[in-house]
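Researcher: Last one for today. Full complex below.
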Amino acid sequence: MVKDFELMEHTADVGIVAYGASIAEAFANAGRALFSLITEPDGINETEYRDIEVTAPDRESLLVAWLNELIFLFDAEGMLFKRFDITDLSTTRLKARACGEVVDISRHILKVGVKAATYHMLEVDSSNGSRVRVLFDI
Amino acid sequence: MTWRETLDRLDDYCWEIPTSYKEGMRVSGRLFASEAMLEHILQEQVFQQVANVAFLPGIVGHSLAMPDVHWGYGFPIGGVAATRVSDGVVSPGGVGFDINCGVRLLTTSLTAEEVIPKIESLIAELYVNVPSGLGSKGKLRISEKELDEVMVKGSLWAVEKGYGEPADVDATEESGCIRGANPEKVSNKAKQRGIPQLGTLGSGNHFLEVERVSEIYDRDAARAMGIEEVGQVVVMVHCGSRGLGHQVCTDYVAMLGNAVKKYGINLPDRQLACAPIQSPEGQAYLEAMACAANYAWTNRQCIAHWVRESLVKVFGKSRRELGLEQVYDVAHNIAKIEEHTVDGKKLTVCVHRKGATRAFPPGHPASLPGDRATGADSRRHGSRLLHCRGYRDRHGDDLWFYLSRCGQGAESVGGQAESAGCRCRQVTGGQGNNSHDRKHGRSGRGGPRGL
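Model: Here's the assembly. Have a good evening.
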């Protein structure tokens, strides 16, 4: 079975490679990979959602903008997400519904603080299945 | 061609990456490292990043790499680049996401022997007083208007509110405030992240550490900083601008990505996104960065105040009796407009320091946080001043306590021999690097720890 995502070690930071049958699926899996760094995904209940819309000049920047929006929602509102339904995706615009819950320190073990998604080593590849790569500053 | 063949050896500790290495380099790269350290660095593709920084328009001198440089994103961590203010660029990636991440060192008149019997109560008290860990919220309740004041005034805001004393501001780089901060250039998202997080240590490689002075190399210089003897206890605070700074960097890397196209700048890595310093985009970043830098100084000012309160409570003595003075506070993720002489000419430049701390001429202190293996150094102009490290327990190991937020309680981390990582910080010259950002190298994360 093909993995949804993999973590990639980097000297100072951590990267992820996410896969999917489509770019939308790979973007959703990148979101799951991000939250797997922050906490154990199994411990996240789907009790709330946030509707997200981001725009960017190109597909690579859109991936960064998408992940940075998720990081913002975690940092500002304490949202831990488990499932992502990408409802609309073009090269420059993404709309999605992200489902999860607000962090509860008594139940969730927080692992790594993620400061931001970076443009370093950024890749969005749809030549042979969809594959995206992004490096986070932790 | 291997990297070793590419490098020109200038002397025992200085290596040059010539401009011929990569078309587009405007200046050469310079790396300060011993032969042994170079072997380690060669594995890290860091030279590629040093060469990429040399593409920045208006860069003067060299693209510099400090001795413990390592692979970052865009800029290497431990990278320094100065760009001409007249026609050069500013790059948010040359500062990093944690704007004005820095360290503050406080003295005490206590000895390790006096502190050790009370270390557990002290650490517990520090945990109560200094919010730390991922997702922690501060105990300060500030409005958006007060946040604007924090971003404009920096350390002075905290002192005026009763968190510390005017002498602390004097012992802080830039007196804890970069001029020209403009809160209007900081997004609502950044403010939303910043309001609840003021007065928090954060997580990751940030720490609050109770340290024992283990060796003094220059007695007079140490005394000038209030450090008298081996065994004296000092406290180091290492943190930055929290979510506010992260969001400012996120916002401006995206915005300046567009500026790169607008101004036709050729860059080998998108994370190096930049804009001319004189452009509206460049000015906006510098004004927003100053806000985040001032927020970080306020943050460390508040934390230092709570550290003092904790010590006063646990030891039942006054602040004066306990000798709780501030040695210095210095940033290591920042861009600053400075005057420097380059090739005999005085120039106004924007110095980007990413995981690098300034070390100006004699009299100027710099603090370099180490890791658990190597301890921390304070130095003045290249001469190693003193070395602090964990208390040596009866087994002869360096003993550290780390209390995690997740309830695992205390763990001790055994000591290691002094590593190359420590010696590498004996650099002389204009910059000291700091190894703190090598995050995977640290065994403890976030929160207070002691001796």
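The interface with chain B takes residues 9-13, 38, 56-57, 60-61, 64-65, 68, 71-72, 75-76, 78, 103, 105, 109-113, 115-116, 118-122, 135, 137-138 of chain A (CB under 8 Å). Chain A has a mean pLDDT of 94.
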